[in-house]
Design goal:
By secondary structure, the protein is an alpha/beta fold. Helices cover 39% and strands 13% of the residues. The two termini are 67 Å apart.
């Protein structure tokens, strides 16, 4: 109902009041809340004080008459036959919650005591019962109805202004809902009015739902209708807001409410009541003399028919054809999951309702609101006892009051001898029969569900509800909110199926006839190819068919002077373009020329028609012969008995002419019927998808099975193998050169396969959100896609951060990309494991094949593998080296005093420092056993307590990287540490490609008021990623942290430390040739000589062990560049060794190694000058270590065979191999680094890898 309607501003918007008052201008209280139930027919005289003593106890009536065993198999489910489904019964309960709610008085207890031999006696002695809250009218009790008497959808909108306001969002006219668009939970926010919510089980109130009525949680079926109409209201608001953008919240709310109430009234009158009691007389307008108030007999007896029509189990039908069953007792007033909405609706539409008779399932009759399988309340007792509490007339009195003849005997009422006998034993004579019992014992009126007494009472009540409502949607003279002509027409065209389909994931075909069983559920004989459909819930209107080879035999039952039409393959979802067959029982007539006729037996006609050229509501639909086709129906026979005819005819499965539809596949079938001559059916129709031959079902089943197997294989491969493997690679292979590529490839392939899983699932899963497995699958797909996009975005932003605006760059630096990536990946692994188990469970339900144990074994193997690797790592860590005191050789023990919880607080900015801080903490934990380090990822529970954690730390380390001084939390930590005099340690990220910055840039970023306290007098410790230099940085950090310990000022060492003293102790004899044209080389050889006296300066190239090439900012750029290049060429020509040193100290002319690819002559680069790595030399405090490693590297170079020092050009294959092996051994002082042969790598790639302020050695 969202078309381009007439401008609604001209229509009255005065809303009906929530409490119903003022609906009737002359009698404002008629139909309002809080008014007594009335007697719309003659009220019986008082029974007398002792009459109740003459009636049998309500529990005896329940046990002897209403007992029905719980079904023990699916075949027993809903054993008593009717063509209506359970959704019809629950809709009746939904309507009841709109019309009637009689509260009880807790001070008037009237328990029902159980007989001594009662089956529940070991657990219960009495059933609680409280009399109804009442008023005194004419000296007699009159129960009070807390609801309005109008069909005003108060179960959706509430019947008080306070409850109605609590249900609203006050934004766009919408009602509050849950995250999955169900009813909101009963929280203080949702239920802001503190309105009552029925909770007979005493559950946590916040677990229940809050709706317009107190009983919204009564069961899953009623809750489903609450959700459907809530969604319809919000959908109407969205449609109106698009049409009228200027409307405010109140106008949108009231107009949407008007539309929904009108739609609801139409559904009750035209979809529901005709199937329950038959069609009502036509509406003739509002009658102010009609009191719509609820009748006592209607509320207490007639409209309680549904209690006996409920089945013992609630079917939950998944979109993949998997059905589950929940006991009825488990679905009543319990927490409801919105995920079950579609399965519940689908299951209720597929489940047969029981008859409204003297049988009630034990879930209601013996286990009402019970827990743990123990006996509970008895609905039959409540129904019988409530009738006596409300002073209902006895059965025959009620019949006479409603204008029906009295029943003379039990034999006239009941055909079953055993039931007659039990009834006579209980009540003695029929004059003492309770009205509720007698009403249910009646045989149903032909064509409807109920007997004459209950039908008469219900019809009388709903006519008064309709005719006495000034705001009825069809009242053209209403003073209230009218509907425009377009809106009114749209309401009349709509059905409950339309409302369900557009507010759930059920298709329009699934919901086409929501109250009637589908063909497969109406199977006549259990055969897959023989079906029966009852139209209008009457056995006198029935369509059956059976496949016989290539023919389909149809058997149509219909009353005299009526017709039934069957259409196949409509193009508009109704009749347009359909291949139509009509059956007429119309007496002698010339109107059916061209149709198959039986002659004069019953004047039956079978017509082959086509709506290919048919126009809406035009009659008659043309015959195939009128359009140039043929009549392809063969009449087989007709039987006429007591005005009911059975007509049998056949047609071919295939199409015999252009106007026929082939029926060998699933086809949309439309059923319509009417009385008298052939006329437009209006709302007397039903539609559903049918597979008449079973071929489509077989093919679909085979295809579905193949897709299901493929889906399972994809799930196992992607989430059972690839994703866990990618995490293991990331965790245990990060030190290798291939782990990034493997990690990315595994995740990428898993992501692609997940999309393939989604598309295969869509093929065999009809609707989304139908099961936990489906929901988790969609969530995994969405999350993995977001994970991929987030990772790519982070890489791009960090790589191009310097090109971004300052504010954007600051945000980029603040985002903890790595932490979020790791956390997201771990969530995906857990979600994938859950999905594998859910998939195995779903596969078992569908196929019966159990792979759950295999899943457990697989994940057990993975867990064992991870556990083994972790144990090995921990053993390796335990045997790793630690810091010791250089003086004593013992570990530096640092007991914390009471004022401290942590030895060292690690302060960093997440965006550029998180990864390295994790490294720092991990290494320090290994190197300083027993020390405690605070890192926010591991230890921060509340960001507001940062200062407190600073106070509880002995020392504070500032990891200074890009964005550190722009972080509000980091500045909080800096200010607290400096203001309280903490021992502050500065660790400096120097790699500008990884968030590093220079000292000058760090000082510029630091607020001016903090520069003095942060940088003055403090050592700035550079942070390196190479193990040897990293160990020195960590040693300096640890030594600084000792300032607050008993070992303050002590020097630390470790087993693998390379020291100058060890170099000096070696007896080296190495001579280096230094070119005068190599700026800085002479100073550097002097520096080396001061470290090791065995290093001397050679006078000529011929007498040296190696040629020193000192790489600095001036190399190949100063005035001696050409001469130096010539010397290098000469050295390389004679195959002399070249020992390259890369200066990183900017004060000594240091520069990034990438510069040399711009300044070095091209022939030297192409000739492989930089195939050997240069030894990096860093400034203090890493200067000495750099010199020691440089000397060690030089010593390795000169340990080459004498043959390598020749100046001859002699060559031999064995010699060449030896040269390569020797060069590989001399590549690096760090033996763990292995580089591929560089000539095969494009130069552009080399330049990208050899960047930054450190040497090629470091960056590789």
């Amino acid at each position: 109902m969202a078309g381009n309607f007439t401008n609604l501003s001209s229509f009255n918007e005065a809303p009906r009041l929530f409490d119903g008052r003022g609906n009737n201008a002359f009698h404002p209280a008629w139909g309002a809340t809080g008014t007594p139930l009335i007697w719309s027919v003659a009220r019986p005289s008082p029974r007398g004080a002792n009459l109740s003593e003459l009636l049998p106890a309500a529990r005896l009536v329940s046990n002897d008459l209403f007992s029905q065993p719980l079904p023990t198999s699916a075949a027993d489910f809903g054993a008593t036959q009717t063509s209506l489904n359970l959704l019809f019964i629950y809709f009746g309960q939904f309507v009841t919650s709109d019309l009637v709610y009689v509260e009880t008085n807790a001070s008037e207890a009237f328990p029902t005591f159980l007989p001594p031999d009662d089956w529940a006696r070991p657990y219960l002695t009495a059933l609680p019962f409280f009399r109804s809250r009442h008023a005194v009218v004419d000296g007699r009790r009159a129960p009070i109805n807390s609801n309005t008497a109008f069909l005003d959808a108060e179960q959706i909108y509430g019947n008080t202004a306070e409850r109605a306001a609590a249900l609203r969002t006050f934004s766009g006219g919408r009602l509050k809902d849950s995250p999955r668009h169900g009813l909101p939970f009963n929280s203080a926010h949702s239920n802001s009015c503190g309105c009552p919510v029925t909770n007979p089980r005493g559950l946590d109130p916040s677990a229940l739902r809050f709706g317009g009525g107190a009983a919204a949680n009564s069961n899953l079926g009623v809750y489903a209708f609450h959700v459907v109409f809530l969604r319809e209201h919000n959908r109407q608001c969205e449609a109106l807001q698009l049409l009228y953008p200027s409307w405010g919240d109140e106008q949108l709310y009231q107009r949407a409410r008007t539309r929904v109430v009108a739609l609801y009234q139409h559904v009750v009158m035209h979809d529901f009541l005709p199937k329950l009691v038959g069609p009502l007389r036509a509406y003739s307008g509002y009658d102010a003399t009609v009191d719509p108030s609820i009748d006592t007999f209607f509320a207490t007896a007639a409209f309680r028919y549904g209690h006996s029509a409920l089945a013992a189990r609630l079917k939950l039908s998944g979109p993949d054809g998997v059905d589950e069953y929940a006991p009825l007792r488990a679905t009543m007033f319990t927490p409801i999951d919105d995920e079950l909405l579609e399965p519940a609706l689908r299951g209720l539409m597929q489940s047969r309702a029981q008859k409204a008779d003297l049988q009630m399932v034990d879930d209601l009759r013996g286990f009402l609101y019970s827990d743990k399988g123990l006996p509970g309340g008895d609905m039959a007792v409540d129904d019988v006892q409530r009738g006596r509490d409300h002073d209902l007339p006895l059965y025959n009195e009620a019949r006479e009051a409603y204008g029906l003849d009295a029943v003379e005997s039990f034999e006239e009422l009941i055909s079953d001898p055993a039931t007659r006998r039990r009834m006579a034993e209980l009540f003695g004579t029929i004059s003492q029969l309770d009205a509720y019992v007698g009403m249910l014992a009646e045989q149903p009126v032909p064509g409807v569900m109920l007997g004459r007494l209950s039908s008469r009472a219900i019809v009388e009540q709903f006519l008064r509800v309709r005719d006495g409502d000034r705001f009825w949607f069809e009242n053209a003279n209403a003073d209230g909110p009218e509907l425009s002509p377009e809106e009114l027409a749209d309401v009349r065209r709509s059905t409950l199926g339309d409302v369900i389909a557009r507010n759930t994931n059920l298709s329009f075909a699934e919901a086409a006839s929501p109250f009637l069983l589908s063909a497969s559920e109406c199977a006549a004989d259990g055969s897959a190819r023989s079906y029966v459909i009852d139209l209008d819930s009457s056995p006198s209107r029935r369509v059956q068919w059976e496949l016989q080879g290539e023919q389909i035999v149809f058997t149509v039952t219909l009353p005299d002077d009526s017709w039934i039409g069957i259409g196949f393959g409509a193009t508009d979802g109704a009749m347009q373009g359909a291949d139509i067959m009509t059956v007429h029982l119309a007496g002698a007539s010339d109107a059916y020329g061209g149709c198959e006729s039986d002659g004069a037996v019953a004047h039956a006609f079978v017509c082959d028609r086509s709506a290919a050229t048919w126009e809406y509501q035009s009659v008659p639909v043309p015959l195939d012969t009128d359009l140039g086709g043929t009549s392809d129906l063969a009449l087989l026979g007709v039987q006429l008995v007591d005005g009911i005819a059975v007509v049998q005819f056949r047609r071919a499965v295939g199409a015999a002419d252009p106007y026929d539809k082939s029926l060998d596949r699933t086809v949309l079938a439309t059923f319509a019927f009417g009385d008298g001559g052939f006329s437009y059916h209006y709302d007397r129709f039903a539609k559903l998808n049918l597979d008449l031959t079973g071929n489509a079902a077989a093919e679909a089943s085979s295809r579905t099975e193949r897709l299901r197997l493929l889906h399972a294989a994809f799930l196992t491969l992607a989430w059972g193998f690839m994703v866990p493997a990618s995490i293991l690679v990331a965790r245990y292979g990060h030190h290798t050169s291939w782990f990034v590529g493997a990690h990315v490839a595994l995740n990428l392939f898993a992501w692609v396969i997940t999309w393939l899983m989604y598309f295969t699932a869509r093929e065999f899963v009809v609707r989304r959100n139908a099961s936990t497995h489906a929901n988790v699958g969609v969530a995994l797909l969405s999350w993995s896609t977001a994970h991929m996009l987030y990772t790519i975005l982070g890489k791009l932003l960090k790589r191009n951060a310097k090109r971004l605006a300052a504010r954007v760059r600051a945000v980029v630096y603040q985002v903890p990309w790595g932490v979020i990536h790791r956390f997201s990946g771990r969530l995906l692994v857990v979600g994938g494991a859950v999905q594998v188990f859910l998939g195995a469970e779903a596969y078992k339900r569908v196929t019966g094949e159990d792979y759950i144990a295999v899943a457990y074994i697989w994940y057990g193997v993975l867990a064992a593998l991870v556990l083994g690797v972790e144990m090995y790592r921990r053993f390796a860590i335990a045997s790793a080296e630690v810091f010791i005191l250089a003086k004593t050789g013992k570990r530096p023990v640092f007991p914390l005093s009471r004022q401290w919880d942590w030895h060292l607080f690690l302060s960093h900015v997440w965006s550029t420092g998180q990864d390295q801080m994790a490294v720092v903490k991990r290494r320090l934990v290994q190197l300083l056993p027993g020390w405690k380090f605070f890192l926010d990822v591991d230890n921060l529970d509340d960001v507001s307590r940062l200062e407190a954690h600073i106070d509880r730390s002995a020392s504070v380390l500032f990891f200074i990287s890009a964005g550190y001084f722009r972080s509000a939390n980091c500045l909080r930590e800096v200010r607290r540490a400096t203001s309280t005099g903490k021992n502050c340690i500065l660790l400096h990220e120097i790699d500008q490609n990884k968030g590093g910055l220079t000292l000058t840039e760090a000082q510029q970023e630091c607020p001016s008021d903090l520069q003095e306290s942060v940088f003055h007098g403090r050592q700035l410790i550079p942070w390196h990623r190479l193990s040897a230099y990293q160990m020195l940085s960590l040693r300096l950090v640890a030594e600084s942290a000792l300032a607050k310990s008993p070992h303050a000022g002590a020097r630390l060492t470790y087993k693998s430390e390379i020291s100058l003293s060890a170099i000096r102790a070696q007896r080296l004899s190495i001579s280096l040739f230094v070119s005068e044209r190599n700026a800085g080389a002479s100073e550097f050889i002097d520096e080396l000589h001061s470290v090791s006296k065995g290093l001397t300066r050679a006078e000529s190239l011929a007498s040296c062990d190696a040629f020193l090439l000192y790489l600095s900012r001036q190399t190949f750029t100063d005035s001696n560049a050409d001469e130096l290049a010539d010397e290098v060429r000469s050295v390389r020509k004679v195959n002399a060794r070249i020992f390259m040193v890369h200066e990183n100290d900017s004060d000594r002319g240091g520069c990034p190694f990438a510069n040399f690819f711009q300044t070095t002559p091209k022939d030297l680069i192409d000739g492989g000058l930089f195939h050997s790595l240069a030894s990096p030399v860093f400034p203090t405090p890493h200067r000495e270590l750099s010199l020691a490693l440089a000397i060690k590297s030089l010593n390795d170079k000169v340990k080459l065979p004498v043959l390598m020092r020749t100046t001859s050009s002699f060559s031999h294959p064995a010699l060449e191999r030896h040269r390569e092996n020797s060069r590989d051994r001399a590549l690096s002082p760090i033996r763990k680094l292995h580089l591929p042969s560089l000539p095969a790598i494009p130069r552009a790639r080399i330049v990208q890898r050899w960047t930054g302020g450190e040497s090629a050695h470091e960056n590789v």
